Amino acid sequence: MATAEPARPGFALPLLLLAGFRTLIDDLHAELAQEGHPELRPLHGFVLQAVGADGTTATELGQRLGISKQAAGKTVDRLVAVGYLERADDPSDARRRLVRVTPRGADGLRRSAEIFDRLRERWADTLGPDRVDAMEDDLRTMASANWFRLDVPGWFGG
Amino acid sequence: MATAEPARPGFALPLLLLAGFRTLIDDLHAELAQEGHPELRPLHGFVLQAVGADGTTATELGQRLGISKQAAGKTVDRLVAVGYLERADDPSDARRRLVRVTPRGADGLRRSAEIFDRLRERWADTLGPDRVDAMEDDLRTMASANWFRLDVPGWFGG
DNA sequence: GTACGATAGTCAACGTGGTTGACGAAATAG
DNA sequence: CTATTTCGTCAACCACGTTGACTATCGTAC
Predict the structure, then answer these.
(1) Which end is more exposed in chain A, N or C (fewer Cβ atoms within 10 Å of the end residue's Cβ)?
(2) How far is CA A156 from its chain centroid?
(3) Average confidence score pLDDT of chain A
(4) pLDDT of residue A158
(5) How many interface pairs between A and B have CB atoms less than 8 angstroms apart?
(6) Does B13 reach chain A within 8 Å, measured CB to CB?
(7) Considering only CA atoms, which residue is closest to the C1' of nucleotide D27?
């Protein structure tokens, strides 16, 4: 049972974690837009990352992201439409449709990594490198399990 | 510019923040479901909190949450349907429809606060109270701005 | 007292992201 | 050669968000 009025109410922690996540992602996409990728949405970067350099299929992508193959397929459609992914037939299996990152997608991915590195440096400059390291270590300790699940919209909503 | 291979790649930080948030929210709702509130979705708790003890209107709720009045109205509809909110006419203004938390909603809110306190205690037990305090302080420093905006699904998606 | 602008709420249409169920086409196992 | 599995897609649906248009009401200015 919680005390009547804790000095540090528990509800602040998740809000702060969300605000931190959101700040980083918003900063990323503000930078990304300036560097020629204004269409990229928060979800898209994670999807591109999940497709990876070797390419994959919609079904496998769904498994990696923790969503259904149908949802993965629709997301791929949208990213194909904006030029970040492309589909190709698999010569060895006519059922499969290979999903690959386009050069434009690879550029977005590379820039994202660089921007995330710069943002982390900014946090380290403000808070001190040890504090950022500690934050990461502590979060790794507490959140170890559900790492790479990006069904955020459906999870958070309904 | 980022170094070729940083010891701590920047992309991990947002992922860890999201994983931490998600872990807390998942733990909360697992507990909440056991305590008789299985219908409550992650978003709903934030909405109930935003409605507050005094009640509000859909338009004002939308302003508080950073979403349109139409979106706020639809969310209220859903929470009314599951019994967490109720609508009432405003005797002093026939245009306004008061939105109030029901007793069931208040129960969910009270339990949520208690569970969040317990979860924070659990984090403090594992990491040490000073580390959790530091994490909160650091996040407050870096994320100061966009605190109470809960348009997460639309923001993250598209 | 009436006319008018501002405000509250709703309806409709749409986009994104998610789900399940059904189905055809192709690979694989027997 | 047939039976089963697997991949991709289609269709229908739900949650959440958006903008635009509209009605009803309030408050004010004349």
Answers:
(1) N
(2) 15
(3) 90
(4) 59
(5) 210
(6) yes
(7) B93
Q: Which residues contact B36 (CB under 8 A, 6 or more apart)?
A: B107
Distance B69 CA to D21 C1' (A): 15
Each residue's pLDDT tens digit, A5-33 = 667 889 899 999 999 999 999 999 999 99
- What token pair was written down for B134? 């530091």
B112-115, Cβ contacts within 8 angstroms, sequence gap of 24 or more: B112/A11, B112/B28, B112/B32, B112/B45, B113/A2, B113/A9, B113/A10, B113/A11, B114/A1, B114/A2, B115/A10, B115/B27, B115/B28, B115/B31, B115/B32
Nearest to B9 by CA among A97, A5, A115: A115
Residues 43-102 of A with CB under 7 A from strand C: 43-44, 62, 65-68, 70-72, 74-75, 78, 93-95
Can you tell me the distance from the alpha carbon of B42 to that of A132, in angstroms, rounded to the nearest whole number?
27
Beta carbons within 8 Å of B23's beta carbon, 6+ residues apart: A142, A143, A145, A146
Q: Give the integer Cα–Cα distance in Å for B117 and B138.
A: 19
pTM for this model (two decimals): 0.88
Rounded to whole angstroms, how far apart are CA atoms B66 and A93?
48
